[in-house]
Amino acid sequence: MTDLIIGNQQIEKGKTYKIQLPLISLYTSSDTQIPVYVCRGKKDGPTMFVSAAIHGDELNGIEIISRLIKSKVLKNIKGTLICVPFVNAYGVLNQSRYLPDRRDLNRSFPGTERGSLASRVAREFFHEIVCKCDYGIDLHTGAIHRSNLPQIRAVLRDEETLLMAKAFNVPVILNTDLLDGSLREAAVEEGIKILLYEAGEALRFDEVSIKAGVRGIINVMRHIQMLPQRKSARKASPYIANESHWIRAPESGFVSHHKQLGDKVSENDILASIKDPYGEIEAQIVARETGIIIGKQNIPLVLEGEAVYHVATFNKPDMVNRDVEKMGEELAENNPR
User: Does the global pTM surpass 0.85?
Assistant: First the structure.
């Protein structure tokens, strides 16, 4: 890419920029912007965006991008890295998943110039950032009171996307379809290779998830030759899940969890007990088949029918469980490089 313009700013080789993309003002007439950080190397190479907080309460990605921007590895970059710490500025201000019009930004892409607020924000981000890139990584977390195991979600029938997903180097890769109106769907239709990183819980920083995210983005940048390869880099063999399912509560009550994120479960294992206010067990939540817990509700209250555990199925669940534990141990001790 020779000419690159973002927000009317010409991006020159060998320079970094902090740009504010204007959005619709608040009720108070205060300006609202999408913050953008651009790092362009002196040498040509791919253009990749990293975005966070499309859902405004998903904050882990903001810290991941903050650490990525400060990383010393960027001094050797080829091509251009575009970082967007939060896309949904309104949601971040209100600690809300949604925009003020109660729409989900991640169901509003590619957006329109004269549509709803969500559609207008989606269009600004999509046309100013996403369409100018070859690759993208979108950062997410679980919802409020729900945690996700660090995992990559992608359409793996595309060979280049599959290789990117493996290069990210977390144990779990989930082969998922594209959702209507999602950033991933719109990006794929434009020919952009994109990964979705899920890790942690809304409104919380999770250190392992953050470190895994920073390390994973740098790994992908090395894979697509934006950064030099490391000779000593240890490459794991991530495990691909083509199916996953939620296990729901059979009764309402107070939950005592027996299984945690990353645990292997087998068919008929008791995952949790549901008690009444007097401590009597009303029901138990039971695994339907062998798999790994990749998502879990955290609050110890549940209503009948509520999703409590997200379980993915693998050919080698014991190996996945081992590598999940190993990843946690490594990231607890070391900083990504």
Answer: yes
